[in-house]
Amino acid sequence: ETDTASESSYSLGRIKKSPSSLTNLSGSSGMASLSSVSGSLMSIYSADFGNVDVKGNIQFAIDYVEQLNELHIFICQCKDLAVADVKRQRSDPYVKTYLLPEKYKLGKRKTSVKKKTFNPVYNEILRYKIEKDLLKNQSLNISVWHNDTFGRNSFLGEVELDLGTWDWNDKSNKQINWFPLKPRVEINFKRDLQGFISCFVVLGSLFTGKKTLSTGEVHIWVKECHDLPLLRGNRLNSFIKCTVLPDTSRKSRQKTRTVAKTTNPVFNHTMVYDGFRPEDLKEACVELTVWDHNKLANHFLGGLRIGLGTG
User: Fold this and answer.
1) Which of 91, 174, 196, 303 has the fewest C-beta atoms lying within 10 Å of its C-beta?
2) Is the pLDDT of residue 173 over 80?
3) Cα dihedral angle (65, 68, 70, 73), rounded to 10 degrees?
4) Can you say whether residue 50 is alpha, beta or left, with left for phi > 0 and alpha for psi between -120 and 50 degrees?
5) Which CA distances in Å does 305 have to 49, 224, 268, 280, 288?
6) What phi and psi values does residue 173 have, to the nearest 5 degrees?
7) Where is the composition biased (Low complexity) (predicted)?
8) Which phi and psi (to 5°) does residue 256 adopt?
9) Mind listing the pLDDT tens digit for each residue in 238-288?
10) Where are the domains of the chain?
11) Any long-range contacts for 257-264 (C-beta under 8 Å, 24+ apart)?
12) Strand 27-31 vs strand 176-180: parallel, antiparallel, or unpaired?
């Protein structure tokens, strides 16, 4: 979290010539209700510097502009934000957005930084060029951060919207509304997976004649996935990584082959881990993560953990 303000945002004054329904948004006086999608995928990728108790609200609106094939997020203002720098009793807040689970290709968008205020006013539009049909597999994460001079930015709260259930035809959803900022929730791998993994874990001892050896093998058969999210049109090339925790060394990492151009890949791949004693299984945990293969960077799609004991 070492970002500084970038050219990702556009103030209202600079976009008057662009057709956008957001320029005619009307305000809403009441607090909007929100079912926040818990377990932001950002928890996997970014550290949460500082220990600020989240408080306050953020005012924004979202709309999809058909003429431009763009998602527009109008960040209006925040109020009653927490104190990030206790020593100097100040916060220098900015707002950052992500479309999840895709975090790399579409990237982040950021507003400008407002200095020395707990009630910053932005009036900026953050834009994403994306086909509307792809939004049904996305969540919009909006987070507020204190910009620190030395790069140790502090998390001030977030809001997350499930765009798959968002009613774009509801006029009230296009109005500017207040949303309470939420603290970051720890990731729950199984809950955040979009789609399903079919797998089996087999535990057994090795036998040689009448003698049972003291160690055995763990077999993880990864059969297939269903309904994985599309990130780049229909070009989804997926594979699965496997790690038996708490061992995170290279020898613990295995992966399947890449299956191209399908959201329902069939792998039929067995991962074999040997040298396990029965007591080792009490501390073992199988972690399976699904990735979209790309030449520049592999993109995280989801994952789950299967606990074999108390580990």
Assistant:
1) 196
2) yes
3) -50
4) left
5) 26, 16, 19, 17, 6
6) -75, -10
7) 18-28
8) -85, 175
9) 999 998 888 878 878 899 999 988 888 888 888 888 777 777 777 788 888
10) 42-180, 196-207+214-306
11) 258/293, 261/234, 261/235, 261/236, 261/237, 262/236, 262/238, 263/195, 263/225, 263/226, 263/227, 263/228, 263/229, 263/230, 263/236, 264/224, 264/225, 264/226, 264/227, 264/228
12) parallel
Tens-place pLDDT, residues 62-108: 999 999 999 999 999 999 999 988 888 999 999 999 887 665 456 78
* Two structure tokens written together for 190: 């199984």
d(CA 166, CA 37): 12
Classify domain 196-207+214-306 by CATH architecture. Answer: Sandwich (2.60)
pTM of the model: 0.54
pLDDT average, residue stretch 30-37: 33
Which tokens in the block code for residue 199?
Answer: 């797998």
pLDDT at 187 over 70: no
* Of 159, 160, 89, 161, nearest in space to 118 by CA: 89
Segment holding 223, helix H or strand E: strand 211-226
